[in-house]
Amino acid sequence: MRAAGYYRPLGSDARSEQAAISSIDRFCREGFHTLARVIGPGEPNSSEADQYGILVSYLAGLGRGEALVVIPGPRHLSNTLDGLVERLVELDRVGGEVRCTDPDLPDPLQNGLESLPFADRPPVQNRRVRESLMSKAARGEVLGRTPYGYVADTDGTYKIESSEGAVVRRLFDLYVGDSAETGQDPGIELSATGPGLRRIAAIFNREGLRTRSGRPWTPVTLSGMLRNRVYVGSYVRYGMRIAGNHDRIVDREAFNRAQLIMASRSPVRKTRVLSPYMLSGLARCWSCGQGMHGLERKSRWTRLNGSTTTRSYRYYACPSRSTVVMEDEVVEENPHPVWRELDLDRATLDALRAEPIDSLRASFSPILSDTSNDNLRAAEHQFMESVRAVASGRGNVSDLSTPLGELKTTRNMTESNLADQDGDITFEKALDAFDTADPGELHVTIASFVDRVIVHADRVEPVYRAGTS
After folding, report:
1. pLDDT score of 180
2. pLDDT digits (tens, 9 = 90+) for 116-169
3. What is the rounded CA–CA span in Å between residue 158 and residue 359?
4. Global pTM value
5. Residue 37: phi, psi to the nearest 5?
6. Which tens digits make up the pLDDT trace of 259-276?
């Protein structure tokens, strides 16, 4: 496999730099990887951020965007666990699969859990569990849940599940433009391919097909399946790569063609910093009581003059929902609500403004730092649980994008809350804040009046802090 080495100076000793380069070279030689480039400090005046940007640009320019990124250890990407996860997610997005040169701990997440601090806490020591997992990985055995299309055989290896395997084959046939599904010649140019992921998800859902958990198909789920090498018989866990480990569901030609199509349809974009959701941690589903999650979808279309344009759509959705969000419409299949962000924010603010002043004054209670710290600790706990799950084989690096985003949002809101406390927020200031456009400030303000906002399909029901109604 093509590989790119990456390291950063962790000390002033020139020998440590040479040791990093040597470990990268040795890892590639022993693993029969082609070391195409080593990205290091470069010029003395270049910053670490510039150096990392070179790595991202290099991966993005590879066409298919697939390469092994070899690092001496996780500290060469970040000094903290959450910083490591952020970079792993970004590198995964541009096609970089990261491995450490440590022969005993090549998986960067496992390595990071043992060597990097998180939230001012020391690294997790879990070597016994790690050694057990790596022993199973060396034998190509199932770790955690099996991918859709496979089940665990009696000997612990992957076995094709016939009905799910048929869905996987059909997904690849549709996406690459199989003649039986699309009426196209499989030998045509890449530009003439099958339908996109949204359309395929709609086809599957319309036919009553469901995921293993019983939920409708989404483009995100299908995209993860199209990128998963397990379907061509490859086993990849904890740095172990075993080709032909189990029976394949999809032939390699179809898999490679799917990667080309995805690369052509998904140009690399700059990482954007998403603005926080105003009702994060406050909005709750009326049906199951779970917190509503903020999510974003993008729609792209071509105008009559040939130019293309995109538009983003932001929603609040119950995690128990059984809905499909497609471009500018929401199809509801059960009572768990989905709201457009602007509509739910506006409905909540309108409900607060309609409440009598005396009732608002009675319910007003500025958020204390303990409340913010509780929210932050909960976000940190969820983040760590997600990292441990992916590190143990239950999920992919891309699955960490959402808990990482929730952690960042909670941290930003906590800082905003503390700043408001320093400014001695009053009832009058809170009322004035209803007219601000800053979601972080609005979040703190609303939380000073309500414990939660119960979200129905067509209305909201604020639950006020002092029991007013």
Report:
1. 40
2. 888 766 665 445 555 566 666 666 676 667 889 998 888 778 899 999 999 999
3. 61
4. 0.47
5. -160, 145
6. 888 877 755 555 454 567
What pLDDT, on the 0 to 100 scale, is given for residue 346? 92
Whether 2-125 and 150-265 share one fold: the answer is: no
Structure token pair of residue 130: 């790690």
Q: Phi-psi bin for 160: left (phi > 0), alpha (psi -120 to 50), beta? A: beta
Mean pLDDT of 210-223: 85
Query: How far apart are alpha carbons 434 and 350 in whole angstroms?
Result: 10
Instruction: List pLDDT tens digits, range 241-263.
Output: 677 788 899 998 999 888 888 87
Tokens representing 283? 């909005």
Q: Are 392 and 143 in contact (CB under 8 A)?
A: yes
Domain boundaries, the chain: 2-125, 150-265, 283-366+425-464
* Domain topology for 150-265: Hect, E3 ligase catalytic domain fold (3.90.1750)
DSSP state letters, 121-180:
BPPP--HHHHHHHHHHHHTT---SSPPTTEEE-TTSSEEE-HHHHHHHHHHHHHHHT-HH
Helix 48-60 with 81-93: angle, nearest 10 deg: 30
With a CB cutoff of 8 Å and minimum separation 6, the contacts of 165 are 149, 150, 249
For 2-125, CATH gives 3.40.50.1390
Q: Judge residue 101's burial from the number of C-beta atoms within 10 Å of its C-beta, 0-12 exposed, 13-18 middle, 19 or more buried.
A: buried
- Closest Cα partner for 203 from 190, 194, 192? 194
In 259-292, the DSSP E strands lie at: 283-285
